[in-house]
Amino acid sequence: MANLIKTKRGLNIAIRGEAEKEVGSVKLSDIFAVIPDHYHAVTPKILVKEGDIVKAGTPLFYNKAVESMKFVAPVSGKIIAVNRGERRKILSITIERDKETVYESFKIKDLKSMTGEEIKEAILLSGLWPYIKQRPYDVIANPEIAPKAIFVSSFDTAPLAPSYDFVIAKQKEDFQTGIDALAKLTQGKLHLGIKAGNKHFSTVKNAEITSYEGPHPIGNVGIQINKINPINKGEVVWTVNAQDVLFIGRLFNKGVVDLTRRIAFTGPEVTGAKYYDTIMGCQIEQFIVGKVKSKAPLRYICGNVLTGHRVTGKSYLDPYSTQITVIKEGNEVHELFGWAMPRFNKFSVSGTYFTGFMRKIFGKKYFDFDARLMGGKRAIIMSGEYDSVLPMDIYPEFLIKAMIAGNIDKMEALGAYEIAPEDVALCEFVCTSKLPLQKIVRDSLDMMRKELE
Amino acid sequence: MNALKKLVDKVKPNFQKGGKLEKFHSVFDGFETFLFVPNTTSKHGTHIHDAIDSKRTMVMVIIALLPALFFGMYNTGYQHFLAIGQQVSFIDTFIYGFLSVLPLIIVAYGVGLGIEFIVAQIKGHEIQEGFLVSGMLIPLIIPIDTPLWMVAVATAFAVIFAKEVFGGTGMNIFNVALVTRAFLFFAYPTFMSGDTVWVRTADTFGIGSGTIVDGYSGATVLGQVATAATEQVKLLNTIGNPIGFIDGFLGFIPGSIGETSTLAILIGAFILLITRIASWKTMFSVFAGGALMALIFNMWGPDTAAAHFPWYNHLVFGGFAFGAVFMATDPVTSARTETGKWIYGALIGAMAIIIRVLNPGYPEGMMLAILLMNIFAPLIDYYVVDANIKRRLKRAKTN
Q1: Which of the four pLDDT bands, split at 50, 70 and 90, describes residue B399?
Q2: Is B229 exposed, middle or buried (0-12, 13-18, 19+ CB in 10 A)?
Q3: Domain range spanning residue B341?
Q4: Is the C-alpha dihedral spanning B129, B130, B135, B137 positive or negative?
Q5: Mean predicted lDDT score pLDDT of chain A
């Protein structure tokens, strides 16, 4: 193992409902939808109208700011509606799916002979570009600015996250092609972060491999970037989720946009949590019906419990989610004297509960969580909480304060370029004062981007 | 529980917008969240949260204070009956102390929480729990015979001018309980120092009346050290028996109510450390800084009793241990960076000993040392964070 980076800072949340490593079968919904709001900071310009017939890979809209950036249909079929809201904002484009998916075919040359520029154009045209994100600001990468490096993390340490070993194992060829293509997009290195001791990804070629050991959020690219190639002012790094590398690999191997993805259906309220093959834009109801314990009001989350967003059964799977999580809503629970009770069934990193003690006695105890804040919002009181779960060379508390104050110079100096909302998700989880840190970071990054770009 | 919930739900509309008692919304909210964990669910961001909240944190600190409080009550009675030369049972001793201390607690809580409730209502905030701890600390760091009206005035001053004007819990620069004590110390010095204030000699609600025995002196150990004429001082208790380190550790000596027993304080420290509410770095470095500074004075100090007071005695007599465990570790007013905590703590310890030894006016230096370092805590953090900023800039240049 050439490079191994270890940290003890972070936290693995003991939540019940990890997915079994088996693939269940689920029927894809008849109606699919592409929702522009899923792509942060994109103003869509529509290219299709009601009644159009599209193939999987046909552009539906493009980004007003970067016209070459296309967003394509995930399946083939007929456009049944372009739903608009206030001021004609495009809310969603719904597609009635064909029985058999017809793929738009992209003429792709042999990858070895392609230049970086050609690869970039192919990815932009095929609608796969939105899967390439950039830091700073944690938005879809600007194709005009070459990155100093590209980072891919081959493992996800988030609560109940899918095992990429299991998901990608049989598609290593596509993964390798994707890596080869991405590597040509930068003059610098393509960094692949792997879990210490992992065999699946250690053989990937064309990438600088670094191993990491530690609790969540070590699997986040943000942490890995900070550890080996931190972003300074004026620098740009691109990041791609390992599962999305497959899409790019398929494009160059087969010349089609195949957005099939294996997602984990997880959470304490799921019966028989396992994996399912699906496509973005699919209706979520397909997974939920008959597979949840439905006594109490439930909360459905696209993504994991830390960074995911709340959805209903009628919602559609967003393009970035690799898992769906179901937990109790908890709004009907009224715990008497919660501040004084022992509350053995509650998880806490603080020593004021018996979490550590219980786990020592009863072995690996896992907890059912619900969506309650478990307390009132306060000013920041406790110190050192955020540092203990953010293994970066950053003072998160001071950065957050600069963000609350809207002081751009301070944010810049304290490392705002290196951080994304997902990195502070754990800080938000442990925060005694229940502050919405991810929202603070997201809003501040948007403000910085507006001011500085 | 269900009946209680029903009752709360029944009266709730009165306090909501448009209700008859809308003015008392914050107070109602305070009581409701006191009874039930709020059932608000997350609207954005993380969907699950750690079960810790500010109420739980504050309650743990109060639990950690209980050993010192109970010992303080007992010691109040013990010192009293020692002074009047009566032998009474454990229970009677405790009851006397309990009844003497209770009014102080009631006044401190009553005044502080009253102001807190009013301010929360004016600002439309939730009631913050910070004063639950301050209100318990205040009685523990003042002499037993402090008049109640003084406690009320000082508490009101501290809560308003040391906390609320800065924006409430979490925003204050100075430790609220210490500001209360400092106010008393400077406004009514005769009630806060000297030989007569540390032991209650009068009766409480008719219990424990008697006359003081011959040869009684109510001076604290640090008071004896400060006024000693020779370099070596012979420490005595109130009735003239010699005492030493172990008495300071156990705490059967005169002093502020909660500060005398280092043992009781260490039990509290243990609770704070296993719950990880207080920083062991701050706590440890206060003791280390104090011990080191005292050792330096022991070796090279001026020829006074205070300078030659053994370093280990400095740690167990006076308010040193109490300040180190409960005051210096206040997360809001202490340094907030991990590196900063080491510096902050060490300087408090050193400064407390310097004031004790070199300042002829004040036998005790802990209160002033902590308040002084409260001012410097943001500066310490500033330089620690600045080092991180510089590192980032340097990194940018070398690339």
Answers
A1: low
A2: exposed
A3: 221-244+260-386
A4: positive
A5: 90
- The backbone region for B91, taken as left when phi is positive above 0, alpha when psi lies in -120 to 50, beta otherwise, is alpha
Give A340's contacts in chain B (Cβ within 8 Å). Answer: 59
Q: What is the C-alpha separation between A273 and A23, in angstroms, rounded?
A: 10
Query: Lowest-confidence range among B48-57, B118-127, B175-184?
Result: B118-127
What letter does residue B318 receive in the DSSP assignment?
T
Is the full-model pTM beyond 0.95?
no
Q: pLDDT tier at A423 (50, 70, 90 boundaries)?
A: very high
Q: What is the mean predicted confidence (pLDDT) over B76-103?
A: 92
Q: How many CB pairs under 8 A join A and B?
A: 210
Q: How many residues are listed for chain A in this entry?
A: 453
A89-118 pLDDT, tens digit each: 999 999 999 988 999 888 887 888 889 899
Pairwise CB contact (< 8 Å): B334 & A370 = no
Using CA atoms, how far apart are residues A76 and B371, in angstroms rounded to an integer? 70
Q: Which residues of A touch B374 (CB under 8 A)?
A: none
| CA count, 13 A, side-chain hemisphere, A382 | 29
Min Cα–Cα distance to chain B from A423, Å: 11
Q: In whole angstroms, what is the distance from residue A331 CA to residue B301 CA?
A: 64
Peptide bond into A147 cis (omega under 30): no
Q: How many domains does chain B have?
A: 2
Of A353, A375, A384, the CB nearest to B338: A384
| Sign of the four-CA dihedral B336, B337, B340, B342 | positive
Taking the CA of residue B18 and the nearest CA in chain A, the distance in Å comes to: 23
- What letter would DSSP give residue A155? -
Q: Could you give the percent of chain A with pLDDT greater than 90?
A: 67
Q: How many CB atoms lie within 10 A of CB B394?
A: 11
B235 pLDDT exceeds 90? no
- Confirm if A365 and A15 have CB atoms less than 8 A apart: no
Domain A31-97 is found in CATH 3.40.50.850: no
Determine the pLDDT at residue B250.
Answer: 94
Distance CA B198, CA B75 (A): 11
The pair of three-digit structure tokens given for residue A315, joined into one six-digit string: 């919602």
Q: What is the ipTM of this complex?
A: 0.90
Query: If you write DSSP's letter for every residue of A211-233 in order, what string do you get?
Result: EEESSTTTTSHHHHHHHHSPPPT
For domain A4-18+114-254, give its CATH number from 1.10.3210, 3.40.50, 2.40.50, 1.10.150: 3.40.50
Instruction: Answer yes or no: do A378 and B275 touch at CB < 8 A.
Output: no
Residue A350 has pLDDT above 70, yes or no: yes
Nearest CA to A159 among A323, A304, A321? A304
A1 pLDDT more than 70: no
Q: Is A239 helix (H, G, I), strand (E, B) or coil?
A: strand
Distance separating alpha carbons of residues A41 and A43, to the nearest angstrom: 7
The H-or-E segment that residue A451 falls in is helix A437-452
Give the position of tokens 């009181």. Answer: A381
* Domain boundaries defined on chain A: 4-18+114-254, 31-97, 376-452
With a CB cutoff of 8 Å and minimum separation 6, the contacts of B49 are A372, A373, A374, A375, A428, A429, A431, A434, B42
Task: Give me the phi and psi of A118, to 5 degrees please.
Answer: -65, -40
Q: List the single residue in B34, B45, B53 with the smallest CB-CB distance to A375.
A: B53
For residue B1, the model assigns a pLDDT of 61
Q: Smallest CA–CA separation between B45 and chain A, in Å?
A: 6
HEC readout, A44-76: EEECCCCCCEECECCEEEEECCCCCCEEECCCC
